[in-house]
Amino acid sequence: MSRTDAGHLRYVALGDSQTEGLGDGDDLTGLRGWADRLAENLARRSPELRYANLAVRGRLAREVRDGQLAPALALEPDLATVVAGVNDLMRPRFDADEVAGHLEAMFSALTAQGALVATLTFPDLTLLIPLARPLSSRVTALNARIRDAARRHGVVVAETSGHPVVTDPRLWSVDRLHAGPLGHQLIADAVAHALALPGSDDSWTSPLPLEGLPAAGRRTVGGELRWAGTFLGPWLGRRLLGRSSGDGRTAKRPQLLPVRPPQDGASEADPPLSQGPLDEGPLDEGRLSPGRRTASPSP
Q: Where is the SGNH hydrolase-type esterase domain (predicted)?
């Protein structure tokens, strides 16, 4: 990966809520997420790194392609990550070939322009969300097509599926739909390993220590019903109303900007230009500015 070592990368991240960083921070203090963590890793060796994050929560693969590919190409990245499809998996009508087609179009355009592109496979979340069991075959089908498309275009694949650690509840936020801080770090480590970054290894695949595994990991009927009412119900409600959690939002970091690597255990990236009332005050250390909002959020 000579371009990574050369110290002149322009890294652009495309995707949905996981790449935006939901579950790692919040909208008031700013979201971090695995892509920010990967950028911080790159900046340790390449201080001149410039990083943009175009991801917006709730986006389908088609919407990522339609709304983010052209801006990404205009930024002329040396490195790009493309992760999308989870929101498609959860829709009543799902076509793995169609979703993979949108991903492949992005792979093709970015690699044709000279970017090194990385993507992920998705874990089967049945152990975290028993109600997601019907989606298991969809995940398997989409992962197979992601691998095939990546192979055709020389895209690097971080295989986050197939490792038991990825369904450890400690890696996930309370909604079980988004990674928590530890999970975002694991994804960043997985992508760094797939890119063969100096200092990276496969330690991210190792199980977490058994001590500390919360009793909440043992699901109960009552707990599942409470989870469904708190998180699944609102999600289904938005779908029925034709709304998305990303309505009115734009990218949190639409321009290529410098990244300050972590120091003394902290982690911080230079925030983007002012993005409205949410970032008028100082940001907590270790957070990027929250995503921009252009209209009222959907419920």
A: 13-186
CATH number of domain containing 97: 3.40.50.1110
Listed in sequence order, the residues at least 6 apart from 68 whose beta carbon sits closer than 8 Å to its beta carbon are 14, 15, 54, 55, 56, 59, 251
With a pLDDT cut of 70, the percent of the chain lying above it is 72
Residue 99 CA: distances (Å) to CA of 95, 102, 115, 160, 164:
6, 5, 21, 19, 26
User: Residue 153 contacts by C-beta under 8 Å, 6 or more apart in sequence?
Assistant: 104, 107, 108, 111, 117
Amino acid at 84: A
Confidence of residue 134 (pLDDT cuts 50, 70, 90): confident
User: Contacts for 261-267 with beta carbons within 8 Å, 24 or more apart?
Assistant: 261/40, 261/41, 261/43, 261/44, 261/47, 262/40, 262/44, 267/32, 267/37, 267/40
More confident residue, 118 or 219: 118
- pLDDT tops 80 at residue 52: yes
Residue 281 · residue 266 · CB < 8 Å = no
Count other C-beta atoms under 10 Å from residue 26's C-beta.
13
- Count how many domains the chain has: 1
Is residue 250 one of the residues assigned to a domain?
A: yes
pLDDT of residue 236: 63
In this structure, what token pair is assigned to residue 198?
A: 């100096």
Residue 229 lies in a domain: yes
In this structure, is residue 296 part of a structural domain? no
AA letter at 113: Q
Residue 297 lies in a domain: no
List, in order, residues 6 or more apart from 197 with CB less than 8 Å away: 1, 4, 41, 42, 45
* Residue range(s) defining the domain that contains residue 181: 2-207+216-274+285-291
The answer to whether 258 and 49 are in contact (CB under 8 A) is: yes
Q: Is 61 helix (H, G, I), strand (E, B) or coil?
A: helix
Instruction: Provide the 10 A C-beta neighbour count for residue 205.
Output: 17
